[in-house]
Amino acid sequence: MRLQGKTALVTGSTSGIGQAIAEAFAREGANIVVSGRDEQRGKAVVEKIRATGGSATFVFADLSSKAEVDRLADEAVRVFGQIDILVNNAGAVTFGPTAQVDEPTFDTLFNTNVKAPYYLSAALAPHMAERGAGKIINITSMAAHIGMSGLALFGATKAALTQLTKSWVAEFAHSGVNVNAIAPGPTLTPANETAGAAFIDQITSTLPAGRAASPSEIADAAVYLASPESNFVHGITLHVDGGRTAV
Ligand SMILES: NC(=O)c1ccc[n+]([C@@H]2O[C@H](COP(=O)([O-])OP(=O)(O)OC[C@H]3O[C@@H](n4cnc5c(N)ncnc54)[C@H](OP(=O)(O)O)[C@@H]3O)[C@@H](O)[C@H]2O)c1
């Protein structure tokens, strides 16, 4: 088991990619803090992990404010004593023309996708640095690396998180903390249901692999970046996008 004895906080692990990451980390022996706003789904994920012999606890958090982010960091540390692995996965998305994005939507995307990872990492990375070890994995997107009509705002938030990934390497790598990103392509999760099948089919048709990812395929990449096998890997974006950004 590659993550035996480690403790991981996975934001947005009540659904989709985050849930798959939480379950994969638990199978590798990590203690998991499952987090999100939906307590019922969060507790179901915890039960699923425990049913297979894993260790997990749910901590509610709405990541739209710094106060809630700070509270999540404190509670997550209190549950298992320390956080060794932080996965900044929770994300908000909107699909559509730039001119149709209202200000509350703009603020929701930047608060969830940039401000929350920023302050969560600010709260937890210094403790990892003091211990001389830690892993931070930022879930970005293919949309941070190519221009995609209908995803301008979303892509901008994920491009900001890509840059934070590199800046945190400069700040924390010398202290033994690995900071990396995973940029998924279209992945079969509830987030995409709001986009409509036609939009997702259109994006998927542009992938060399010719299909969308399953959440577990993103989780496999996260296990690598959380494990000792990636200890000399700093600041990469692992593109798990069926080859889309390669061609
Ligand atoms: N699916 C894709 O095709 C795709 C592609 C590229 C990148 N991504 C990225 O992958 C990550 C996971 O996406 P997904 O597809 O798995 O989405 P999902 O199934 O909709 O899950 C999103 C998760 O984020 C949490 N979340 C959203 N807003 C939150 C808030 N304000 N406070 C706390 N938690 C919040 C949700 O928790 P609650 O429901 O409990 O509130 C949920 O667990 C996101 O960062 C997304 O941008 C996804």
Automatic annotation (TrEMBL):
SUPFAM superfamilies from the UniProt entry: NAD(P)-binding Rossmann-fold domains
Top-level taxon in the UniProt lineage: Bacteria
Oxidoreductase found in the keyword field: yes
GO molecular function: oxidoreductase activity
Entry keyword set: Oxidoreductase
Upper classification of the organism: Bacteria, Bacillati, Chloroflexota, Ktedonobacteria, Ktedonobacterales
Annotated InterPro entries: KR_dom, NAD(P)-bd_dom_sf, SDR_fam
Keyword field contains Acetylation: no
CDD domains: SDR_c
Transmembrane segment boundaries: none
UniProt-recorded name of the protein: Dehydrogenase
Family listed: Belongs to the short-chain dehydrogenases/reductases (SDR) family.
Occurrences of domain Ketoreductase (ranges): 6-185
